[in-house]
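Q: Here's a chain of 379 amino acids. Please give me its 3D structure as C-alpha cells.
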Amino acid sequence: MLAAPVSFEGRLEQYVGRLNRDYEGKEAVYVYDYIDAHMRFFNKMYGKRLKTYKKTGFSIWTGDEQTKQIINAIYDSGNYTEKFEQDIVEAEKSIVISSPDIRQNKIDRLLSLVKDRQEKGVNVTVITTDPERVVYGSADVCYELIREMQQVGINNGRTKMNTKKIYDAVVFDMDGVIFDSERAVMKCWMELARKYGIENIEEPYLACTGTTMERTKEIMLEAYGEDFPYDTYAKEASLLYHEKYDGGRLPMKPGVVELLMYLKAEKKKIALASSTRKQTVINQLRDANILDFFDAVICGDMVERSKPAPDIFLKACDELKVKPENTYGIEDSYNGIRAAHAGNLRPIMVPDLLPKNDEMEELCEVILENLLEVVNYLK
C-alpha cells in the first residue's frame, strides 16, 4: 500500500520498481494507492503518480467488472435519478454534468457520489449558469456552492458564462512580488562583496529570500562563520539601498497596478504580508502611490514566527475577516509559498530570483510568469 505524499517521478519509479523484481511464485503486482482526493494538494500529486504508473507498465485496476447499464435511453425528471447516479459511479475517465441550476441538497449528494470516482482518477466538471445571471435563487448561494465544488477538486464550467475564480481576498508578499526589491538588495550586497572580497554571496543571499532580518543574520553567520561582521555589512548595504531607491525610485514589477485595480473593481479584499519591518513597508507603498489599495498591512515585526510558518498569512486573513481557504496568497519565494500553503490559503507563485521546482509545483494552485498573467487567471 502506498500512502506517502510523493509525486516525484524518480522516487515513485524507485518504490514500484522494487516490487517488479522477480520472485518465485509471484504472478502479479498490485499497488494500493491511498489518496484523499478532496484535498487539492494531494489530488494534484495523485494525478502525477498515475502518469508514472502508466510509464512503468502498471494499469488501473478497479476490482471486479460490473455490468454496464443500457445506453441511448431518454429520461425525464421522474425517472432519471437512479440511472444518473449509476452513470456517475460507473464513470472511468471523466464526468461532465451540465446543470443550469444548482441546489445545496443536489451538490451534497453529488459530492458523496463522486468522491470514490475522484480517488480513482476520474475528472469531474460541472457546468452551470453564471451566478450573476441566475433566474431563481440567490447569487451568493450559487457562489458558495461553486466554491464548495472547487474546494474538493471539481472543475466548474470552463465556458464564457462562468470562468471567474471564486474567492474573497488576495494577500500579497511585497519584496519580489510588488517591488523588484530582492534584485535591488542583492545588487547592493554584490557591490559590498566586490569591495570586501566576500566570496559566493549569491548563494546565502538567495537562502535569505522571504525571511526576517533575524533569520537573514543567522543564515549569513552559518555561511561565513561567527566572526563575520554581518551587522556592519548590513548597515552599509542598507545605506546603499536607500541612496539608490528611496523616494519612489524602487522599480515595481510588471502588472502590479493592473492587478490591484482589477481586484478593487471586483470588490475583493486586499492585504499585504511582508517579512519586512512595517515602517519600511508603509514608506515604500506610499512612495509608489499604492498604499490606499490595501485593506490591511501585516509585517514581520507584527507576528511571532516568520515564514515558512503561516502566522503572517493567518493574521492577514483575520484582519480581512475572510477564510484562508477562500483567499489567494501571491508569493515569489519558497518560504512564502510554504507559509501560504501551511495556512491553507491558495498559493500562486510568481517566481523572481528563485525558479520553480517540484516542491513548488506541488504546493501551488498555479505558477505564473508575472502579475498580468494573474489578472487573466482570476478572470
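Q: Can you summarize the key feature?
A: The longest strand covers residues 269-274.
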